[in-house]
Amino acid sequence: MARSATTDPLRNFKFRVKIHPTGRLSELTDNGKDFEVGFSVVSGISVQNEMIAYREGGMNTHPHKMIGQSDYGPVTFTRGVFGEQDAMYKWQTFLHTWGQGGFEEGSNSDSEGNDYRCNISVSIYDHPVSTAQYDDDPSDNTPLTGLTAKMGYRLYNCWPASYAMGDLNAGDSSLLIQQLVVNHEGFEILWTPDLAEGSDVDVFG
User: Fold this and answer.
1) Could you say which of 30, 37, 117, 182 is the most buried, measured as most Cβ atoms within 10 Å of its Cβ?
2) Where are the domains of the chain?
3) Which helix (DSSP H) or strand (DSSP E) does residue 94 occupy?
């Protein structure tokens, strides 16, 4: 009996990451809008709920356990280093300048214009995909068109926790890797039924 491919779980290697800057941070991109970055690894989506123990007189066998705050773990984005693609490093530099109050005179000084936070969307696609088309222009930030996300998630109010560049070694033949770890204030997972109702992973309400 034939087995439908729709019963298979999603693969973990066909995904797209889009960063949504605001205010002055959007000036760091080529077109002043959202920008996509091809990552090889995205890891660390998790949430941990705090437990608050409460003891009650007369009930000495065990404490009540109530929920406290939810803590969202940092997410790590890993990709190779390209000489002309510096968006990740610029985000870190912007954050450092913001913390030092180093904006030039006459710059937009309102809180929205100088916001160092970004929302990030991750779209996950099925495999194989026969409708995808590769753009003829390699400079375009959307190399794949015609894809329909099967699920995805949105990260809210993200900012760089750390930025690291791989080591240089003349005796090694490995690729030069950079890694960006971001803190965020929560994530939302969009499942296939959510997307079927017209939601877009890249649209933030």
Assistant:
1) 182
2) 7-44+67-196
3) helix 87-100
